[in-house]
Amino acid sequence: MHNPKMHPQALAEAAGAVMFARDAASQALGMKLVEIRPGYARMTMPVRSDMLNGHQTCHGGFIFALADSAFAFACNSHNHTTVGAGCTIDYLAPGRLDDLLTAEAVERTLVGKTGIYDVSVCNQEGKMIATFRGKSHRVAGEVVPTHS
Fold it and tell me: What's the whole-model pTM score?
């Protein structure tokens, strides 16, 4: 299907497109994959009224979901099937109705089958909403088959 010698950027884009097409959870939350490259992903999510908690701010679970999705796309951008092995999140400021949150996931290290990724979540004004650190583990398989 795809050439195994495919350029890393083209492979990251292909893996991102395949993953997003079958990611009903991220799509249902209104997320968009804005940018992907090897070891990096940027995603956005609008804060809707059905995402507000009892304080009328964005429920932390939705902020977590955005950060986790960006993490997933970044760690699968090398086209090796990769899953989360653990993560932490710190909430720094509230997300508000109609905010457009952006999660930027950056690979910090990738050694063997283990990677560490930092994700920052900001609002449309660049205010930091949350910071997330994820640990990934590569499993068998590829996101986009590179062999016929």
Answer: 0.94
